[in-house]
Amino acid sequence: MRALEIEVFSCRTDNYGVLVHDPETDLTATIDAPEEGPILEAAARRGWKITHIFTTHHHIDHVEANLALKEKFGCEIIGPVNEALAIPGLDKTMADGDEFHFGEHLVRVIETPGHTAGHICYHFPDDKILFAADTLFALGCGRLFERTAADMWHSLQKLSVLPDETAIYFGHEYTLSNARFAVTIDPDNERLKARAEQIEADRAQGKFTIPTMMGLEKETNPFLRAADPAIRRNLVMESKTNEEVFTEIRKRKDNF
Ligand SMILES: [Zn+2]
């Protein structure tokens, strides 16, 4: 089986667009459809035709180009069953644990309620790739619009059991702000400090911070580290539950 090819580009204000191409079958999926123009340009640059849209959640900056792309390419739109009515042009719904194939590549759907009620992530276990959209960011996690912090903590736990070598593609370039926040929560984490410095340098040059890796996130992303003794000490929350610590971290980020 030949490796998937991935094209990443920026669109809208701070969204990332991601195309996934299977060279064996010539299938190309866009992960969400934030904006028609940049998606068409990226596809043309690589000589790919969009055959699928893998929708993660209903927010307009993730579905706006669904109908335009469907009209142009006749592509199939896959999306979360719990947001089916809010997703334009949806053909096929997916629930937690559902599996399907993209060419020969296995795809597993992971429901991650929190940012929205029905948000799903697309995991390619054999390729060690996760499309996490607005659930898990580099050094961050999605804002809580439709579910509780406890729900989001549970969703992030489902992602954090994936192998450390999993490459994570996420929905927005928020990494600089996330890094500056993360060091206030976990100030003695040397790996985090080094990463934050690197991010400052990379973003100053406009470099993309996508993809990230699960192992690195587990070591440095405070939203995955509510159980960490140093973070609990820093927040004076040693006796609290992981959910309570996570809730406090999320609240602080909302006001950062
Ligand atoms: Zn969103």
UniProtKB/TrEMBL annotation:
Domain Metallo-beta-lactamase: 14-172
EC number: 3.1.2.6
Family matches, as Pfam families: HAGH_C, Lactamase_B
Enzyme class, broadest EC rank: hydrolase
Keyword Transmembrane: no
Domain of life: Bacteria
GO biological process terms held by the UniProt record: methylglyoxal catabolic process to D-lactate via S-lactoyl-glutathione
Entry binding sites for Zn(2+) 1: 57, 59, 115, 134
Annotated positions binding Zn(2+) 2: 61-62, 134, 172
Keyword tags: Hydrolase, Metal-binding, Zinc
InterPro entries: Clx_II_MBL, Glyoxalase_II_hydrolase, HAGH_C, Hydroxyacylglutathione_Hdrlase, Metallo-B-lactamas, RibonucZ/Hydroxyglut_hydro
Record-level Gene Ontology MF annotations: hydroxyacylglutathione hydrolase activity; metal ion binding
Keyword Metal-binding carried by entry: yes
Pathway the protein acts in: Secondary metabolite metabolism; methylglyoxal degradation; (R)-lactate from methylglyoxal: step 2/2
Cofactor note as given: Binds 2 Zn(2+) ions per subunit.
Named cofactor requirement(s): Zn(2+)
Spans through the membrane: none
Catalytic activity: an S-(2-hydroxyacyl)glutathione + H2O = a 2-hydroxy carboxylate + glutathione + H(+)
Coiled coil, from the record: none
SUBUNIT field: Monomer.
Chain's role: Thiolesterase that catalyzes the hydrolysis of S-D-lactoyl-glutathione to form glutathione and D-lactic acid.
Stated family: Belongs to the metallo-beta-lactamase superfamily. Glyoxalase II family.
NCBIfam families recorded: GSH_gloB
Protein name in the entry: Hydroxyacylglutathione hydrolase
Source organism per UniProt: Neorhizobium lilium
